[in-house]
Amino acid sequence: MINYLTLKNGHFTPSHTDIEDTIWLAVEQPTEEEVNYLTTTYELPKDYITGVLDDDENSRFEGLHQNKLEEPALMLLQYPHATISPSGYTQLDTFPFAVILTTSGKVISVINKSADFLQKALSTALPDSTLPIQESLILYLSWHISTYYNRCLKDLIQETNKLEGELKVSTENSQLYQIMDIQKSLVYFESAIDSNLEVLNKLYTARIFSDPRAHLPHLHDILVETKQAATTTKIQLKLVDKISDTFSAIVSNNLNNVMKILTSLTIVLTIPTIIGGVFGMNVKLPFANREDAFFWIAVATTATCIFVIYRLKKRNLL
């Protein structure tokens, strides 16, 4: 699907076709026909578009060595996207997002999965800037990807804190599965953010910018957000590793406590069974001829059980 967007009063407005005022073509899950149309119309290398169809595509730059944009340039970054893990819980993976600068002055973004950051970018006004529209858009989209990582990391931190609160009573494996999915998300984040950071650093020396210094304040903000995400990811990954080890130990300990209580209760409940079995034998026994034998046997059994319970509690076994 191709969305043709024009800019009016700082806001992106969709149009039905590619007109002269179109500045941004937002492409999502392109078909073979759309790929052929874009590569033919804008004279693009086919892999600029089809690269995002490979979920494992790495972040990279192509064509930014030019002093002037005489051929299309590509910036490919990775962004987070929520999926369902094999264990059945939410997991954040990373997928490629391509930004193509055409020689006709338009920007083409290509994505193969839906993305919240892109929806927000489309609905938010483009900040005023003296930069050309292509340069503004490439920085604008990079900013939204960087901030989206930090929003996702806040959600992961909240989920981790919630799981910590369940540690005291946990005896099941569901929390361990969730911790594992958070770990996987952070591993994906660490790799993707480091790759994005390498690409964004190259914008400092990119020759295609008309004014080599005008974009630096915007780029600085993007790099600050990206480095913050990278630092948070590394710290959170270490914390989650520790929490995972602690979680496993606590789950095992809670299970041991349950088994300890059940074993102690079994011992207590065995006492009436033994006494009842002895006095149920068809042989001559003490108190067998007394009319109140059952009462005294019951009293003795109850007293024995109470004494055993007291001793077990004193030894912290019940």
TrEMBL record:
<keyword id="KW-0812">Transmembrane</keyword>
<keyword id="KW-0472">Membrane</keyword>
<dbReference type="GO" id="GO:0016020">
    <property type="term" value="C:membrane"/>
</dbReference>
<keyword id="KW-1133">Transmembrane helix</keyword>
<dbReference type="InterPro" id="IPR045863">
    <property type="entry name" value="CorA_TM1_TM2"/>
</dbReference>
<protein>
    <submittedName>
        <fullName>Magnesium transporter</fullName>
    </submittedName>
</protein>
<feature type="transmembrane region" description="Helical">
    <location>
        <begin position="293"/>
        <end position="312"/>
    </location>
</feature>
<dbReference type="InterPro" id="IPR045861">
    <property type="entry name" value="CorA_cytoplasmic_dom"/>
</dbReference>
<dbReference type="Pfam" id="PF01544">
    <property type="entry name" value="CorA"/>
</dbReference>
<dbReference type="InterPro" id="IPR047199">
    <property type="entry name" value="CorA-like"/>
</dbReference>
<dbReference type="GO" id="GO:0046873">
    <property type="term" value="F:metal ion transmembrane transporter activity"/>
</dbReference>
<feature type="transmembrane region" description="Helical">
    <location>
        <begin position="261"/>
        <end position="281"/>
    </location>
</feature>
<comment type="similarity">
    <text>Belongs to the CorA metal ion transporter (MIT) (TC 1.A.35) family.</text>
</comment>
<dbReference type="InterPro" id="IPR002523">
    <property type="entry name" value="MgTranspt_CorA/ZnTranspt_ZntB"/>
</dbReference>
